[in-house]
Amino acid sequence: MAITSVPDESTLAALRASAGPTGLADLSAPAAHSPRHSTDSRSHDGGEAKVLSLSKDSGPQAYRGAHAAGYSSDPSAFRRFFAGTGFPLALLSAACVYELFLLAIVFAPETTGAWGGFAREFKQWCFRYDARTGGMEWAAVWVMLVEPAFVTGVAMMLWRRALVPLRTRAAWRQHRAAAAGGALAASVAMAALFVYGRPAAGADAPLPFPGERIRTHLAAPAFSFVDQTGRPFALGELRGRVVLVTGIYAMCSISCPEILRETRTLLESLPAADRAHVAIAALSLNPEEDTMELMSRVTAAYGFTHPEFRYLNGEPAAMHAALTSLGFAPVKNPRTGVIDHGNLFLVVDPQGEIAYRFTLDARHRPWLREALTSLAKEAGGS
In terms of Cα–Cα distance, which of 332, 245, 345 is closest to 290? Predict the structure, then answer.
């Protein structure tokens, strides 16, 4: 059966007048019936007709391919883009650029340039990255990596018919502009994020130590415990000296080794006259399991000597009370035994007051040394 469209008389008259006496002489004749079934879809854009003819021999695949390519009776290019192959393809390429951007931040070696500073701050804000230990919240990393893949997968399901033509290389070439547009849009967005979020020039340079402007005068808790040699220790005994208080536990394998190495380096950097007025008190974060033997082995392994360095433990209830009052807040995971805790350095001045509070952050390192040096001078150092 053939489908034939025959113009009416008024249309024929108008066409004859515009074409001349000979141009359309046969317009009134009926169209020849063809054994082929043809479907004409006409859309008018700017006065020009666009005709797509598909024969029965082309089959349903050709019709679906043409529809997916964006051909429609609707003249809106915007609608054709979102209803056809263009949008899901652009989304896929944008997601690929975004994934590469995240992978470069998370797994690329850290550098000292603008990119290294940006990646470090991005990880610190989004994944609680610790630059000293390299640890971060990997659950948050994987969530951020999976999100674009999930969104793209949903889009692929919704636009699966529109993506059928991409089985051929010719279709990929036909829609390369959409893929390039998606990649370009994502690249521009990532570049803008980098420009906005990168540290300013010289941001890595240490800031001058504020000294008295950040000094506090908080009363230190009066605790009394036992050190790694079995000798009793009370904080009040060191009145007149500078005491660096921190928290560790023997089985810690992440931040505690960094705390101990940082403390060792800090002591070695002090002039001998200043170091003579400084003592270290390391409180056990795991009083239930830190035995005297373990405490002694840890102290010796990092090269500390008694009485300059004292690893303290006591009754669990009293230890936890002291740790909580000082802000270490240890929380043990009952399944793994790992203890989450604050990586703190509290500096007690010669008057027995907590003068400064620092963390393991590398930016605090020069300030911690300055604080010990200035307070050691108060205690009678050089």
Answer: 332
Residue 90, pLDDT > 80, answer yes
CA distance readout (Å), 247 to 181, 204, 310, 322: 53, 27, 11, 11
Name residue 296's amino acid.
S
Cis peptide before 307 (omega within 30 of 0): yes
Ranges in the chain annotated CATH 3.40.30.10: 211-378
Q: Which residues contact 113 (CB under 8 A, 6 or more apart)?
A: none
Residues sharing a CB contact under 8 Å with residue 304, sequence separation 6 or more, in sequence order: 263, 264, 280
In the block, residue with structure tokens 């001078």: 377
Element at 282 (helix H, strand E): strand 278-284
> pLDDT (tens digit, 9 = 90+) per residue, 13-63?
555 555 454 444 444 444 444 444 444 444 444 443 333 344 444 444 444
d(CA 119, CA 194): 9
pLDDT in tens, 285-331: 999 999 999 999 999 999 999 999 999 999 999 999 999 999 998 99
Sign of the Cα torsion 159, 161, 165, 167 reads positive
| CB 44 within 8 Å of CB 75 | yes
Q: Is the pTM of this model over 0.90?
A: no
Q: Model confidence over 109-158: pLDDT tens digits? A: 766 677 888 888 888 888 888 766 677 888 889 999 899 889 889 988 99
Radius of gyration of the chain (CA): 37
Tell me if the domain spanning 211-378 has CATH number 3.30.300.20: no
